[in-house]
Amino acid sequence: MKHSQYPITQPIVTTTARNAAKPIDRLQTSHIGLHLLLLVAGAFVLLPFALMLLASLMPKADILRRTFDVGRLSLDNYAQVFRVAPFGRYYLNSIIVATGTTTLQILVASLAAFAFARLRFPGRDALFVLYLATLMIPFQVTMIPNFILVRLLGWFNTYQALILPSAFSVFSTFLLRQYFMGLPLDYDEAARMDGAPSWRIWAQVILPLSGPVLATLAIFNFQAAWNDFLWPLVITRTPEMRTIPIGLSAFQGQYSTEWHLLMAGSVVALLPVLVLYIIGQNWFVRGITLSGMGGR
Q1: 28: which of 39, 45, 137, 166 lies 20 to 30 Å off by Cα?
Q2: With contact defined as beta carbons under 8 Å apart, do 219 and 280 qualify?
Q3: What is the DSSP string of 225-281?
Q4: How many CB atoms lie within 10 A of CB 29?
C-alpha cells in the first residue's frame, strides 16, 4: 500500500483567530445575561396582573385568609359583578366615551399638526410654542372653568360633557407635528401641482402615510380616556352616565372592600385596552420609533 507523497496537514489555528473568537464569546454571554435580565423584569411586571387574575377567581374569604385552594376557584365573581352593579352600563359608557374621545382627538390634532408642520403663515412657530406651553398647566387648574362652561351649556351629566372637553390634546398635536415634519415636502408640492387643496393633501397624502403614529396615538388616547376617573366623577350624577373607573369604586366602602368583585371588575375593565394593544402592537412600535424623526 502506497502512501501519498503529500503529507496530510492539520488545520492551524492562529493566535489571531483565537483572539477574534473571544469577543464573540463575550458578546454571546452578554446577550444571554441581557435576556435573562429582561425575563426577570418581565416576570415582575406580569406578577401583579397574575395575582389580580387569581384573586378574581377566589372567594372573598380565601382572599382575606390568604389561602389558596384550586378546588374553590370559579367564575362566579364575574357574574356577581354584573348583578351587584350596572357594570354593563358602565362598560357601554366607557366604550362610547373612549372611542369618541380618541376619534375627536386624532381628528383635531392631525388638522392642527398639519397646519403647524406643512403650512406657512406668519407667527406659526411662535403660536406653536405658546400652544405647547399649555402642557405645563395641570388639569386641576382648568377643571373648574371647564365644569362651569359645561353647566352653562346645559351639558352636565351627558356624553357631550364626557367627550368634548378632552377632544383637544397638545401632546397629540406635538407628536403628529414631529412626524409630519419628517415627511418630504415633495408630496405636497406634487399634489398642489395637480390642483389639490390643503384639506385634500391632509386627507389623501399625509394621513395615509401616518398609519404608525396614528395607531400609537389611538392606543395612548384610548387608554387615557378609558382610565379617566376625576372628570367623569365631577361631571356625572346618575349611574346611567358613570364609567368603569367610577363603577369599580362602588366595590370599595368606608369600612370594607369587596376584593373578589374588585379584582373581577378590574380584569373585565382591562380587556379592551389589552385587545387594542395586541391588534396594533406592530404599528405601535413603528409609531414610537418614527414619531421622533428630525424636522426641518
Answers
A1: 45
A2: yes
A3: HHH--HHHHHH--SGGG--HHHHHGGGB-SS-B-HHHHHHHHHHHHHHHHHHHHHHH
A4: 10
Which 3 state secondary structure label does DSSP give 154? coil
Q: What is the pLDDT of residues 222-275, one digit of tens each?
A: 999 999 999 999 999 998 999 999 989 888 877 778 888 999 999 999 988 888
Q: Quickly count: other Cβ atoms within 10 Å of residue 271's Cβ.
A: 10
Q: Where are the alpha helices (DSSP H) in 134-258?
A: 139-153, 159-163, 170-181, 186-193, 198-201, 211-227, 230-235, 244-248
Supply φ then ψ for residue 291, to 5 degrees: -70, -15
**At 168, phi and psi to the nearest 5?**
-115, 120
Contact 287, 216 (CB under 8 A): yes
Looking up cell 372637553 gives: 165
Q: Hey, what's the cell of 119?
A: 403650512
DSSP state of 206: I
What's the predicted TM-score (pTM) here? 0.80
Whole-number Å distance between alpha carbons of 119 and 135: 23
User: What angle is formed at CA 175 by the lines to CA 169 and CA 180, rounded to 5 degrees?
Assistant: 120
Cβ atoms of 223 and 102 closer than 8 Å? no
Instruction: Domain ranges for the chain, please list them.
Output: 15-56, 76-290
| Nearest residue to 231 (alpha-carbon basis) of 248, 246, 216 | 246
> Which residues sit opposite 89 in a β-bridge?
none
Number of alpha carbons in the 13 Å side-chain half-sphere of residue 265 = 27
What number does CATH give the domain 76-290? 1.10.3720.10
Q: What b-and-e string marks burial along 178-194, b requiring 16 or more CB atoms within 10 Å of the CB?
A: bbbbbbeeeebeebeee
